[in-house]
Amino acid sequence: MLRIINILDRPNIFLYKYLIMRTKIIKKIKTRTDFIEYFKEEEICIKYITQIRFKNGKFCPFCGCKKIYIFSNGKIYKCSECLKKFSIRVGTILENSKIPLKTWLLGIFLLSTSKNGIASTQFAHQLQVTQKTAWYMNNRIKSTYKRNKKIMAKKILHR
Ligand SMILES: [Zn+2]
Asked: Which of 80 and 139 is assigned the larger pLDDT?
């Protein structure tokens, strides 16, 4: 099935960086239980994703402007150039979904650490979501992962 990818959606960058960052916290997190325990608070997830997303400085996902403001709730940003408001989800695979960040992170963790893949029923059960949601998440994460592999392969070839 053909998927239309929003031009603002830059999951490649997100997951690629996530995979690198993961190696840094992997000492603490070895199992699914460790992961759930570590990322149980939404604030921790936001902090973690923000670190990855703005690793090279904050920017607006719409126009690329680097002068952005954060609202006092710590969740919404506003661009000084195009005046658009956005959260850290915008421009990543987490965009346009109401799925909690901890569920997304757990989904990425499970898929990126399983060698032989996970059955959709098991994936839904482990994430405590419906099968429809699990299918949606699985598709988004996997398509990103495939494209990341291509990017990584290119990087090696050009060296
Ligand atoms: Zn902007």
From this structure: 80
